[in-house]
Amino acid sequence: MKGDPSSHGQPLKRKRRIPRSFKELTPSNHFNPRTFFYEMVWKGWLTKRSGQCLRPEFPRLVPGEVSITWIGHASFLIQFSDLNILIDPNFANWLFLLKRLRHAGLKICDLPQIDLVLLTHAHYDHFHRPSLKQLPKAPRIAVCPWGMGELAKGLGFSQIVELQWYESFTFKDWKVTLTPCKHWGARNIHDEHRGFGGFLIEHQGRRLYHAGDSAYSDCFHEIGRRLLPEIAMLPIGAYYPDSFRHVHMGPDEALRVFKEIGAKVMIPMHYGTFKLSFEAMDEPPRWLRELAQREGLLDRIRILDEGVPTVF
């Protein structure tokens, strides 16, 4: 699919039902509201927000270099010499009752001009409308899974593109491809038609992969075979209790995915920002380091500090 100026502001009119096998993926079995409130809400209220929000010094890049800045949670700023991309931007200090426990790595006002926004699915921690509304005013494109385009209307995008799994959108000399994952995309209990996925970004000879939210699945074998990612941003948090692994992966499974897709570098994400499950906030990166050390992969794991651009 090529960029088409005539489609500016118009999402593709497509519907795709969630695959039958994914309909029971929500981690709601045996849900205990009292335990949820204590573990994820009350403990968060009592925890002092940590981290710093410093004004970043963005590097000057030459063609072929890419800078990756982790904003926190699943949010990233990806920069090439001629292209700035945001993935799942979320700068919120609160998500309803859930407190952000680490400051966003940078402020919205310190962002460069954004050319492209990638939205992996409609869950509130990934698709945060207030953050999207505050992005610097500039012509920009939003790319998202099927069924999400209507949600992105009125947010200032010049073009909204919906994709199916393994469908690509090409504009100028960059390309993004929507990849499968094992999750679900409903924003509320009545909109199961909304899609979900990750993205493979291709530009200037580089191939960056953001897995979105996902449990472990055999779909990663196929992603590695077909798309050959070089740098992989993989989720490692929100996996305990074990029932949460129906929709999220832990560090052990993320490391398995890293090996299966054949990427050179892994950047962990989706941990340490919001209390979304019962494991300790510092457990995911600590466990990942231990596993990577044991398997001789530690030099290929890049654990980023929020707000610090890293050039690859």
Q: Would you tell me the overall average pLDDT?
A: 88
CATH topology: Metallo-beta-lactamase, Chain A
Q: Give the uncertain stretches in residue-range form.
A: 4-26
Order of helices and strands: HEEEEEEHEEEEEEHEHEHE
CATH superfamily, by name, is Ribonuclease Z/Hydroxyacylglutathione hydrolase-like
Radius of gyration: 18 Å
Task: Supply the helix-strand structural class.
Answer: alpha/beta
How much of the sequence lies in strands comes to: 15-25%
Shape: globular
Please give the count of helices.
5
End-to-end span in angstroms?
A: 28 Å
Instruction: Give me the count of strands.
Output: 15
Which strands sit side by side, in order, in the main sheet?
8-7-6-3-2-1-15
Major sheet attributes: 7 strands, mixed
CATH architecture classification name: 4-Layer Sandwich
Give the helix level as a range of percent.
Answer: 10-25%
